[in-house]
Write a structure and sequence with these properties.
Elements (H helix, E strand, L loop, with lengths): L1 H30 L15 H25 L3 H18 L2 H25 L3 E2 L2 E2 H30 L3 H24 L6 H29 L5 H20 L13
Antiparallel strand pairs: 1-2
Helix pairs in contact: 1-2, 2-3, 3-4, 4-5, 4-6, 5-6, 6-7, 6-8
């Protein structure tokens, strides 16, 4: 009986831990906004695991469709899909994913605003310019607040770890994105001077966080992924060039990025 019990216990353990581990990896990928790979099958697992997998499969599809639509210029489709993804993340109470989705929605609001300015359209997808600015500000506020909360939690649990530095870079990106948004839309905001000042503060915060990642990364042995770093540089340069095109002086010094 004992010989039968041990393999049975092992099978039960595997049937529980394997699908849970696989689901954990899916959550981690979503939290990092990495959904370019095919959605994996979940081996074994209970009916509840299958139900959770079904939910995450829908999330994967939503995010991939939204990203494809965004980069293809289908802003209407991207907006609806990203909004649905944000609602699902909120329902799941996944704060990291909510933060990422909110940041993406903020970036989309900036793109919509620029499209409206270029075409002189008063609305886009039945959303007024004023509403786009309000929504964008709210999305970025939520993204940064949740990012700071998550960053503090990692610091409390792990201290100045590699995981902390990786997530700090994500939070830095959100400050940079909000800076671009505010410095682009501030003239159409109710309090333009406040938006302008906050945009400059966000740029300074982003720069300080980037330096902290680099300086402390050396101490922690964290160099980062070269491809990710290259994409980061290109994103920063593209954003700064956009600001310079709007008439701003280079507030950062592009040469300092290298």
């Amino acid at each position: 009986a004992l010989a039968v019990l041990i393999p049975l216990s092992a099978w039960i353990s595997i049937s529980l831990t394997v699908p849970v581990t696989q689901l954990s990896k899916l959550v981690a990928n979503i939290n990092r906004n990495q959904t370019h790979n095919e959605f994996p099958d979940i081996s074994r697992g209970s009916r509840e695991v299958a139900r959770v997998r079904s939910t995450f499969y829908r999330l994967y599809k939503l995010i991939r469709v939204a990203n494809t639509a965004f980069y293809s210029g289908e802003l209407d489709r991207a907006y609806k899909t990203m909004h649905d993804a944000l609602l699902l993340f909120t329902k799941l109470e996944n704060k990291k994913a909510i933060g990422i989705a909110s940041n993406n929605m903020g970036n989309l609001m900036l793109t919509m605003y620029r499209a409206m300015k270029q075409t002189s359209a008063p609305t886009l997808f039945d959303i007024s310019r004023k509403k786009v600015i309000h929504k964008g500000s709210s999305y970025f506020k939520a993204a940064i607040e949740m990012g700071e909360e998550a960053l503090q939690k990692i610091n409390d649990e792990e201290g100045f770890s590699i995981n902390y530095l990786i997530f700090m870079q994500q939070v830095s990106n959100r400050y940079f994105n909000r800076a671009l948004f505010l410095l682009t839309v501030h003239k159409d905001r109710f309090e333009p001077d406040d938006a302008y000042s906050q945009g400059l503060v966000d740029l300074s915060t982003c720069k300080d966080m980037d330096r902290e990642v680099v300086d402390n990364g050396d101490n922690e042995g964290f160099k980062g992924d070269k491809d990710v770093y290259f994409e980061l540089l290109m994103g920063r340069i593209k954003g700064l060039l956009h600001m310079m095109k709007l008439g701003y002086d280079d507030p950062w010094g592009i040469e300092e990025l290298f």
